[in-house]
Design a protein that fits this description.
- With 341 residues, the chain is an alpha/beta fold.
- The protein has two domains: 153 residues, Rossmann fold (3-Layer(aba) Sandwich); 175 residues, Glycogen Phosphorylase B (Rossmann fold).
- The chain contains 14 helices and twelve strands.
- The strands form two sheets. The protein has a six-stranded parallel beta sheet with strand order 2-1-3-4-5-6.
- Helix 8 links the parallel strand 8 and strand 9.
- The longest helix has 18 residues.
- It is elongated.
- The N and C termini lie close together (8 Å).
- GO terms for molecular function: glycosyltransferase activity.
- Pfam families: Glycos_transf_1.
- It comes from Lonchura striata.
- Keywords: Glycosyltransferase, Signal, Transferase.
């Protein structure tokens, strides 16, 4: 089959990574799968023209609103993959909710990353319950072996000649829902007392206006740095050398960065919100915080307790192996796509 896959393809965002993985799964089953950036299209008419000109047999879209809205009235069969903010946030807006309901009604199937996400959607659109499948994200990390950690620190303006550097990495696209400034003040206070700790914020400027605001604000906080985004393999190598990976989002579907850190056996500290709590059991597979002060206290306990750290990363790695198998994800998408024939 010749398949169109619509997603928000800004480089290095979670959606783009998921889209690339799904494309690989479908290629492996002998399909042709073409990725298109949903942001490049205004209306369903443009996509209808594209599907007829390029002779697509079927389509997939990631995100029920951003991708799905372009498939309204589609002449070809399609499936939907929930993004996270669609069922967590967009559902609160009446116009978006109507569009999403209409799209879901016509979809042959839908995929939710978590049971919680499926339940949110099914509560809003009960008739769709049977067509929503739960498939968690499959994770595969490929750290670059030639990554230059010291150059990375130097480029970030982090001194490497003062002994050990403890880098906490916050991996996120720079947009409001990720709340990258949530921890900066508390972290900077900590850095003043312990200059070895640094917070690096790394990810694409998804919202350019907000991204420049973040860069401006961070200048006032010693020990906090906005870093140049990295290609996937180098980012994985940087994660591997960091002390911990952070997530401070206000709302989250299923954070690939958290799962990748778990796979690389790096401790995760995440804000206690439903999407993160679905992945992390507090003090078992990671640490959950509800305030910046709690984050600092947990970070200190992590640094001072190597045994706890080892136990957490070992359990987290096992969790990813068991629940986020890349092979399992491949099988699911290869089976589901047969419903589009």
């Amino acid at each position: 089959m010749r398949l169109l896959l619509l997603a928000c393809l800004r480089a290095q965002t979670g959606n783009a990574t998921t889209a690339a993985r799904i494309r690989d799964h479908l290629h492996a089953a002998g399909h042709i799968c073409v990725l298109k950036d949903a942001f490049m299209y205004e209306s369903p008419t443009e996509i209808a023209n594209l599907t007829s000109t390029d002779k697509f047999d079927a389509a997939l879209a990631i995100h029920l609103y951003k991708g799905g809205r372009l498939l309204q009235g589609s002449k070809i069969p399609f499936g939907i993959i929930f993004g996270g903010t669609d069922v967590n946030e967009d559902i609160k807006c009446k116009e978006k909710r109507q569009v999403m309901g209409a799209v879901l009604e016509k979809a042959r199937f839908a995929v939710a990353f978590t049971v919680e996400m499926k339940e949110l959607a099914a509560a809003e659109w009960p008739d769709a319950r049977k067509k929503i499948h739960v498939q968690s994200q499959g994770i595969k990390t490929t750290p670059s072996e030639t990554f230059d950690w010291y150059r990375f620190l130097q480029n970030a303006g982090i001194p490497t000649d003062t002994g050990s550097v403890h880098l906490f990495l916050l991996v996120c696209g720079l947009r409001r829902v990720k709340d990258p400034l949530y921890l900066v003040e508390a972290f900077s206070d900590w850095h003043r007392k312990d200059p070895s700790v640094h917070l690096g914020i790394i990810g694409p400027a998804v919202d350019p206006l907000f991204a420049s605001e973040v860069k401006e604000r961070v200048k006032r906080f010693p020990g906090v740095h906005v870093l140049q985004e990295l290609p996937q393999q180098e980012l994985h190598a940087a994660l591997r050398r960091s002390l911990a990976v952070l997530n401070s989002s206000v709302s989250e579907g299923m954070s690939a960065a958290i799962l990748e850190a778990m796979d690389l056996e790096i401790p995760v500290l995440a804000r206690n919100i439903p999407g993160n709590a679905a992945l992390i059991k507090h003090k078992e597979t990671g640490l959950l915080f509800s305030t910046p002060q709690e984050f600092i206290a947990l970070s200190k306990s992590l640094m001072n307790d190597p045994i706890m750290e080892k136990e957490i990363v070992t359990r987290a790695k096992d969790y990813v192996k068991k629940h986020h198998s890349w092979e399992g994800e491949r099988k699911t998408y290869q089976n589901l796509v047969q419903r589009l024939q």
